[in-house]
Amino acid sequence: MNLDAYRIADEPYYRPVGNEIELFAAAYSDRLPVMLKGPTGCGKTRFVEHMAWKLGRALITVACHEDMTASDLAGRFLLAPEGTVWHDGPLTMAVRQGAICYLDEIVEARQDTTVVIHPLTDARRILPLDKKNELVPAHPDFALTISYNPGYQSAVKDLKESTKQRFVAIEFSYPDAATEAAIVVREAGVDEKTASLLVAIGERSRNLRGHGLEEGASTRMLIHAGRLVAAGVDIRSATQSSIVLPITDDLEMRDALTGAVAACLP
């Protein structure tokens, strides 16, 4: 299969907040598997897209979920007019042809599914296809990247230590206020004053993490609010729809967030 559909033609906008670009490039140069750790909506996926573009590599992204099986990653036999035919899964396609495979929010997948990546993350760099009785050696350009939100750790949903320790980890968090405001200006098309107000609201919500909220407002949420404002929605309604209502169903917490929003607005 041709990988052209998985190549990123235009540079994805990304504002670095540390040395993550240099770290990822160094890891890729030695084909080390990379784990991106950080809260939801802080730019992990955009970062991978930016690095795939920067390195000139195709990017195959898999959104992990609890019903995902090893066959969903590796492939399966399917019935076709000519008989039973093997179809490579996204991971196998990346391994064979030399793409970056990005497993987004890998903690959502079952632990018995994620072990399929283990032989790809050590010196062997092979993918066993048990159903096909085949060992697929990784293409020289193949690299594996996963994302992981430590905030969702629990006894049920967490990565095995045997999986974590196979990766180079790059930690992500929300940018400083000035950088985050610049991102909102660029991505939402609002002025600096509006972007700064949205960032202040985001910071207020993040201060409530652990006090009724599992997560504060992500940079993605602030961009959504900004886009509503750019489309003509007043900022109070925009933040209510993009931040307050999506982030919690608890009525008392909604009131607290609404108050935090009101305190930031003129």
From TrEMBL:
<feature type="domain" description="CbbQ/NirQ/NorQ C-terminal">
    <location>
        <begin position="180"/>
        <end position="263"/>
    </location>
</feature>
<comment type="similarity">
    <text>Belongs to the CbbQ/NirQ/NorQ/GpvN family.</text>
</comment>
<dbReference type="InterPro" id="IPR013615">
    <property type="entry name" value="CbbQ_C"/>
</dbReference>
<dbReference type="Pfam" id="PF07728">
    <property type="entry name" value="AAA_5"/>
</dbReference>
<dbReference type="Pfam" id="PF08406">
    <property type="entry name" value="CbbQ_C"/>
</dbReference>
<dbReference type="InterPro" id="IPR011704">
    <property type="entry name" value="ATPase_dyneun-rel_AAA"/>
</dbReference>
<dbReference type="InterPro" id="IPR050764">
    <property type="entry name" value="CbbQ/NirQ/NorQ/GpvN"/>
</dbReference>
<feature type="domain" description="ATPase dynein-related AAA">
    <location>
        <begin position="33"/>
        <end position="167"/>
    </location>
</feature>
<protein>
    <submittedName>
        <fullName>CbbQ/NirQ/NorQ/GpvN family protein</fullName>
    </submittedName>
</protein>
<dbReference type="InterPro" id="IPR027417">
    <property type="entry name" value="P-loop_NTPase"/>
</dbReference>
<keyword id="KW-0067">ATP-binding</keyword>
<keyword id="KW-0547">Nucleotide-binding</keyword>
